[in-house]
Amino acid sequence: xxxxxxxxxxxxxxxxxxxxxxxxxxxxxxxxxxxxxxxxxxxxxxxxxxxxxxxxxxxxxxxxxxxxxxxxxxxxxxxxxxxxxxxxxxx
Length: 91
Fold this sequence. Notes:
By secondary structure, the protein is mostly beta strands. The protein is built from no helices and five strands. The protein is globular, with a radius of gyration of 16 Å. The termini are far apart.
């Protein structure tokens, strides 16, 4: 049985990726991302829209404006309220 080595490019997080839009980019290394989801009521089966805002860490050199679509994923805590990081900018 052959063993394979994982490189840093192949090793990815198992955390789910969320897609949302940037609602505020006023802080230096932080953006606020609003993620909208479609949920289903367990009792009646009615679909309804829900949204949640996340504070997301932005790596050095990246800049985002309000309205940009981004993908985020969970990571280690960066600060008290920041638990997500920007993965890629989606178009």
